[in-house]
Write a structure and sequence with these properties.
Length: 391
């Protein structure tokens, strides 16, 4: 069933125009009856007034405005009074035009069309009866008015449905864009959390662990040789300073301080030297091939992976040596970290290896680990010199 669309500012104006038109036509019928001085003028005036009162009751009664069934009964009452007026005067024919709009607006599409046809036939028949004969020209006015009313109302309803469909689409689009923005924000937050987790694990966590080991060594040494204790404390202080610089830098997503005004090979060589100086392990660095400029993201990833790998060696491997090799190939660059420690089962690796693998895969690279209990560990990362998608 087609229901009447809710009123908009434009439809309210049209509704008031319809009210005024019907009242004006009823007034015209009453005035013409009085002006003609016919014997039934009083009855015409009374019927026109009754029709106006019945019609005015519709917009004023809440029941008629809210109930479809009550509105139909009101429409029937208006139609009955109009038929009485139509019997009394031929001028009642013109009231049929606003009635068309009422019927099309308040009734379902099929019922409204049938009501309009019946109203038009009643108007044509009554007019012919008042004229005493039927001529085709007398049917043109009511029939044309009915056709115009049907075209206008159905056209308006079609436009209204299209407008509502567009409004719903816009609401859905707005909601979708809001959901997308929220999802992107959530994804950004998760990505940032993951980045910070990797950075903290590869820098602050490893540095603080180094500080702990150094201070423990200082504690053991202090009662015997104050000089060695002072050296360990100085190394601990320097490690703290280095990690403070790391924290300040990665918070704003810049390159690590170890790469400031230096090359990747120099940074890795300094890392090995620092590791050897601070811990009971000999870390050696070498590189092969011709060093070529790498994207900053590649240099950062290789340095971070090297830092994490050496830190894992110091903490878990109980190794005496570790070899770090940087190799520049034609289309790839590789970093290998090999130690002679106690080894481990790669299938039961922790967060550190997962973070290193994530770094490598984010740059279209790979990370491989070969190790077994009692046979040391070999970690190898391979990155393309030219990232995928670059012409």
């Amino acid at each position: 069933m087609t229901t009447a669309p809710p009123l908009t500012p434009t439809s309210r104006v049209l509704t008031w125009c319809l009210h005024l038109l019907l009242i004006a036509l009823l007034a015209l019928a009453a005035v013409r009856a009085v002006a003609d001085g016919s014997s039934g003028a009083g009855a015409v005036v009374a019927t026109a007034l009754t029709c106006a009162v019945v019609y005015a009751a519709g917009p004023l009664l809440p029941r008629v405005r809210t109930s479809r069934q009550a509105a139909r009964w009101w429409l029937i009452a208006v139609g009955v009074v109009w038929l009485v007026l139509l019997v009394l005067t031929a001028d009642g024919v013109w009231v049929a035009f606003p009635l068309y709009f009422l019927q099309l607006h308040l009734l379902p599409r099929r019922q409204g069309l049938l009501a309009v046809i019946a109203t038009a036939l009643a108007a044509i028949t009554a007019f012919a009866a008042h004229q005493g004969s039927f001529v085709p020209a007398a049917a043109i006015g009511p029939a044309l008015g009915a056709a115009v009313a049907v075209a206008v109302v159905w056209g308006y309803q079609a436009l209204y449905r299209e407008s509502e469909r567009r409004r719903h689409l816009i609401e859905e689009l707005t909601a979708t864009r809001a959901d997308l923005a929220e999802a992107q924000h959530a994804a950004g937050v998760l990505a940032e959390r993951e980045r910070l987790a990797h950075e903290i694990h590869d820098t602050l966590a490893q540095g603080l662990s180094s500080i702990q080991l150094l201070l423990r060594a200082a504690e053991r040494t202090l009662p015997d040789t104050a000089g060695n204790a002072a050296r360990h404390v100085e190394q601990a202080r320097q490690a703290a300073a280095d990690n403070l610089a790391e924290a300040r830098r990665f918070v704003v997503a810049l390159s690590p301080p170890a790469l400031d005004d230096t090359t990747l090979t120099d940074a890795l060589e300094r890392l090995c030297a620092t590791t050897s100086a601070r811990h009971r392990i000999t870390a050696r660095f070498r590189f092969t091939g011709t060093p070529t400029p790498l994207p900053t993201a590649h240099e950062v990833a290789l340095l971070r992976i090297g830092q994490a790998a050496l830190a894992n060696t110091v903490r878990h491997a109980d190794a005496s040596t570790a070899d770090v090799t940087l190799c520049y190939l034609d289309e790839h660059v590789t970093l290998d970290v090999v130690d002679n420690g106690v080894g481990f089962d790669p299938d039961h690796s922790g967060f550190g290896l997962t973070a290193m693998r994530t770094r490598a895969e984010a740059l279209d690279g790979t990370l491989a680990v070969e190790s077994s209990p009692g046979h040391g560990t070999e970690l190898s990362v391979r990155l393309p010199v030219e990232p995928k998608g670059r012409p």
